[in-house]
């Protein structure tokens, strides 16, 4: 019996392993590539000078004072990362029911934007106009008698967005999921003379259990009253996510985001294929924490899983990824380019 012939008969002469036999041939036919240009680095901010704080639920991630954030951003730019996204931990004494401190021209977000833009002008700065870091109840909008009121929230978020643009933000990324906020922000930015400031909409943000470590990072974990299911999308829904995305694009979003990331790769794919607009995913804190915990216990190869997870977003059609791994991944990619394995 000619076993080789039998296999050729089974496969019709197609031997797909031929192009897997060597590193050079695998690289030659690789369909998706990850680069530092695909990465956006979320940076947590805190008040003070020349200080950093570890975040227990996110090993390796730290809150940074503005001066430390400037230095860290220099490093990110040197690694080829095109943009950062800033998230503040606001002291409780500056939080209230409406998140009014978000409108302060000298709040932590705006001070950081000015400082980073002055020191590292080549990197893009993405800011979030949602109110949750500024409210004493932890919600993304104004809470009235147990209800998140949409229109009043939109008015405050819009004013905060203009203030962030005035401070130098390049992209406003509203994560609040209020109805109409993208159109309201676009109109307000244009009227204020910031027509070149882009909007990255959190178009499909799900009511997910993966956000826990992030809420610790910005100090809302212990203050959140209730949950966010009345304005975030039900994890069971795909068509609703597409309707949300369609609405935000119609209102003027330049880019759209899916959040969380890995549990919603199907949504990433559907959004990209349906709308053909720049599509991003946020590899959220819970995803990061799970990988780090498993790696710390020796259950997985953390470095390989990190890179594989990021590549999955590219395979799903994403143009870029917000990830706490941005610096580590960029360094790994740089080492590979320099001849590393």
Automatic annotation (TrEMBL):
The keyword Cell membrane does not apply. It catalyses: 2 5-aminolevulinate = porphobilinogen + 2 H2O + H(+). The active site is at residues 205, 259. Keywords: Heme biosynthesis, Lyase, Magnesium, Metal-binding, Porphyrin biosynthesis. One of its GO terms (molecular function) is porphobilinogen synthase activity. Its EC number is 4.2.1.24. Pathway: Porphyrin-containing compound metabolism; protoporphyrin-IX biosynthesis; coproporphyrinogen-III from 5-aminolevulinate: step 1/4. It is an enzyme of class 4 (lyase). GO terms for biological process: protoporphyrinogen IX biosynthetic process. Mg(2+) binds at residue 244. GO terms for cellular component: cytosol. Belongs to the ALAD family. Homooctamer. This is Delta-aminolevulinic acid dehydratase. The lineage of its organism: Bacteria, Pseudomonadati, Pseudomonadota, Alphaproteobacteria, Hyphomicrobiales.
């Amino acid at each position: 019996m000619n076993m080789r012939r039998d296999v050729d008969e089974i496969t019709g002469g197609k031997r797909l392993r031929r192009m897997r036999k060597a590193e050079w041939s695998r690289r030659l036919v690789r369909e998706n590539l990850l680069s530092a240009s695909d990465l956006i680095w979320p940076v947590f901010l805190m008040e003070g000078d020349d200080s950093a704080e570890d975040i227990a639920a996110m090993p390796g991630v730290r809150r940074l004072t503005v001066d430390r954030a400037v230095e860290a951003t220099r490093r990110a730019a040197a690694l080829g990362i095109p943009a950062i996204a800033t998230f503040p931990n606001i002291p409780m004494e500056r939080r209230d029911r409406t998140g009014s401190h978000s409108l302060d021209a000298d709040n932590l977000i705006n001070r950081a934007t000015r400082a980073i833009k002055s020191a590292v002008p080549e990197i893009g700065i993405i800011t979030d106009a949602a109110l949750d870091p500024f409210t004493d109840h932890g919600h993304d909008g104004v809470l009235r008698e147990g209800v998140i009121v949409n229109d009043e929230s939109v008015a405050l978020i819009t004013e905060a967005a203009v203030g962030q643009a005035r401070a130098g933000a390049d992209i406003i990324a509203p994560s609040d999921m209020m109805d109409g906020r993208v159109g309201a922000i676009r109109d307000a930015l244009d009227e204020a003379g910031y027509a070149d400031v882009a909007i990255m909409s959190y178009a499909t943000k799900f009511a997910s259990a993966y956000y826990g470590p992030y809420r610790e990072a910005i100090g809302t974990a212990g203050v959140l009253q209730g949950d966010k299911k009345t304005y975030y999308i039900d994890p069971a829904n795909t068509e609703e996510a597409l309707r949300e995305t369609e609405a935000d694009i119609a209102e003027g979003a330049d880019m759209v985001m899916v959040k969380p990331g890995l549990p919603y790769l199907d949504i990433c794919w559907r959004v990209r294929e349906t709308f053909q607009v720049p599509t991003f995913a946020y590899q959220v804190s819970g995803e990061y924490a799970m990988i780090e915990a498993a790696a710390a216990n020796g259950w997985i190869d953390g470095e390989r899983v990190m890179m594989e997870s990021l590549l999955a977003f590219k395979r799903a059609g994403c143009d870029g990824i917000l990830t706490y791994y941005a610096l580590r991944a960029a360094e790994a990619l740089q080492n590979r380019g320099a001849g590393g394995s």
